[in-house]
């Protein structure tokens, strides 16, 4: 990886699909628009790479000390960049976009009045 921006800085917009980071570092799994397929049978949520979440200097981002990015829930729209333009699997989320998640990625069905499951990654169509 070269100094950020010298090897082709790539911005992205996506939707958070998993926030239960096993290492408890505040990472999230994001389905990036235009890069990952909207069809969840082609790439399952559990197969999406973890994205780091940029924090303010008030949060040390060191083993749970300081602030934590706990408000990113499944369905949150985010923007960020890839620090490895050759592989596009090392993403950094830098902020959120306003809005509501009103459709699923697979079929475009309504998600209103439904809750996102805690355990994610297996393909299960909405009823």
TrEMBL record:
InterPro entries: Gp5_OB_N. Residues 38-105 form the Protein Gp5 N-terminal OB-fold domain. This is Protein Gp5 N-terminal OB-fold domain-containing protein. Gene3D superfamilies: Nucleic acid-binding protein domain. It comes from marine metagenome. Coiled coil: none annotated.
């Amino acid at each position: 990886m070269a100094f950020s921006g010298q090897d082709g800085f790539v911005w992205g917009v996506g939707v958070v699909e998993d926030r239960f980071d096993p290492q408890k570092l505040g990472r999230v799994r994001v389905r990036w628009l235009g890069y990952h397929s909207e069809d969840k049978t082609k790439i399952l949520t559990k197969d999406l790479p973890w994205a780091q979440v940029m924090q303010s200097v008030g949060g040390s981002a060191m083993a749970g000390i300081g602030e934590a990015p706990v408000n990113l829930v499944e369905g949150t729209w985010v923007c960020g960049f890839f620090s490895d333009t050759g592989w596009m699997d090392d993403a950094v989320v830098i902020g959120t976009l306003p809005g509501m998640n009103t459709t699923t990625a697979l079929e475009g069905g309504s998600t209103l009045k439904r809750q996102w499951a805690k355990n994610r990654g297996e393909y299960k169509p909405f009823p």
